Amino acid sequence: MMRCCRRFQSIGSASSSWKVIDFGDRSVPGDVIRRIIMRGTTVLRLCGTTIVDPIPDIDQEPFYTKLTHVDATRLSFTPQF
After folding, report:
1. How far is the C-alpha of 21 from the C-alpha of 37, rounded, in Å?
2. Domain chopping of the chain, boundaries
3. 50 and 28 in contact (C-beta within 8 Å)?
4. What angle do CA 15, 17, 18 make, to 5 degrees?
5. Is the pLDDT of residue 68 over 60?
6. pLDDT in tens, 33-44
7. pTM of the full predicted structure?
8. Which of 6, 30, 75, 76 could form a disulfide with 54 if both were Cys (CB 3.0 to 4.6 A apart)?
9. How many of the other CB atoms lie within 10 Å of CB of 43?
């Protein structure tokens, strides 16, 4: 969605849009979680979330987060074959 025009790009890239993210009861790829955290998320709710294919690429560089709260209740990992 952010690729469709400059306006959406500027709105989607603003760190204020990514402060609180709720992935409750959804399936989410592991790389999406990483990208969301890198955008400056401070509160991440993963209650009941299934992370699909959670194995990160070893060659990726480490990063620092602004996370202050994480709800990982009933979080599960499922490898994708």
Report:
1. 9
2. 18-78
3. yes
4. 70
5. yes
6. 888 888 889 999
7. 0.75
8. 30
9. 14
